[in-house]
From TrEMBL:
Pfam families: Destabilase. InterPro entries: Invert_lysozyme, Lysozyme-like_dom_sf. Its EC number is 3.2.1.17. Gene3D superfamilies: 1.10.530.10. Disulfide bonds join C39-C123, C44-C50, C93-C99. It is an enzyme of class 3 (hydrolase). This is lysozyme. Residues 1-29 form the signal peptide. CDD domains: lyz_i. The keyword Hydrolase applies. It comes from Anopheles sinensis. Keywords: Antibiotic, Antimicrobial, Bacteriolytic enzyme, Disulfide bond, Glycosidase, Hydrolase, Signal. One of its GO terms (molecular function) is lysozyme activity.
Amino acid sequence: MSRFWLFFAYAPIFMVLILSLAPLPSAHGVFLSNLNDTCFRCICEASTGCSAQADCRQSYCGPFSISRAYWMDAGRVVLPNDDPTRWGSFEDCANDYECATNIVNQYMEKYGTDCNSDGLVDCIDYTMLHVNGGPRCQGALGGAFASKFFQCLRSK
Ligand SMILES: *[C@@H]1O[C@H](CO)[C@@H](O)[C@H](O)[C@H]1NC(C)=O
């Protein structure tokens, strides 16, 4: 066989080698794929009714009802070109739907885990994390929040 044809004979082996060296999706990327737009909407619905409210109530801000501690824990996400040390940068991000979803996303990247031990890390776990907080997220969703949340998930 000429060298030319040998190249083609071995090409599939090289392809497999090259593909196996390609980076695998990170664990974070895999489980956060369940944190989709529907999930954000339903957390938002259950948290505040998801009106376009841009205010803070008893130190919980914006459509996802985010506290300053949660924001700090999530790595102080701010609006583009804003400065996390600026007074008001937390409120301005939390009160903006897009920016607030980035806060939630960072929080879930940090704490994402199978809160209800059903073998999946899905929207229900993210919602339990949102409500209960990262380190101890096992508490079942209850009350008005839970009924709004599950009704929202069913209707999407
Ligand atoms: C988004 O997440 C919800 C809740 O887990 C799920 O029901 C829905 O199928 C997902 N949608 C897509 C497009 O993946």
